[in-house]
Automatic annotation (TrEMBL), chains A, B:
Domain HTH cro/C1-type span(s) in chain numbering: 5-59
Keyword tags: DNA-binding
InterPro entries the record matches: Cro/C1-type_HTH (IPR001387), Lambda_DNA-bd_dom_sf (IPR010982)
Keyword Transport listed: no
Species in which this protein is naturally found: Yeosuana aromativorans
Pfam families: HTH_3
UniProt-recorded name of the protein: Transcriptional regulator
Length: 66, 66
DNA sequence: ATTAAAAGTAAAACAAGTTTTACATATAGA
DNA sequence: TCTATATGTAAAACTTGTTTTACTTTTAAT
């Protein structure tokens, strides 16, 4: 699974810290997600999608390996 | 956060075990999700949404308390 | 070149998701 | 009523997500 969080942040001109604060997680959580260190919870995915006003599927993309 | 998994299973005439097997988790994981015992990973959410051919947001719904 | 802000990284601790095994309860059909 | 299938539940073990603290590196602007 990959994700577009970095791009969406750029579009919305947000730092990792900004995004972290908006959705109520630590900055390291955002950083680790962007670096594909781990798969976030559905709660985080929904909050991020809501914030960026796009579907979860447009941010988090399933890959063949999943 | 709540979810419609039970309804979607009914629409697709699947048991908890069926769904579990299709997306590669244990039956207890499906049961626990339906009973709101915990929030699944985004990977699971995407797989379930793909299987039912509807958006993640139509299955997992944010609530005010989230 | 220096500085400030942003991003990357790492380890320990803690919280939460998932599996496994096992049993109890419910439901529908024979 | 008996039986098979589906669902609910629980505890232990394991895996993974998340936080906290703290430090390093990068980037962009001065």
């Amino acid at each position: 699974m990959k994700n577009n969080i970095k791009v969406q942040r750029a579009i919305h001109d947000m730092t990792q810290a900004d995004l972290a604060e908006k959705i109520g997680v630590s900055r390291q959580t955002i950083n680790a997600m962007e670096k594909n260190k781990y798969v976030p919870s559905t709660l985080l995915a929904l909050k991020i999608a809501k914030l960026f006003k796009i579907p979860v599927e447009d941010i988090f993309i399933l890959e063949n390996s999943d």
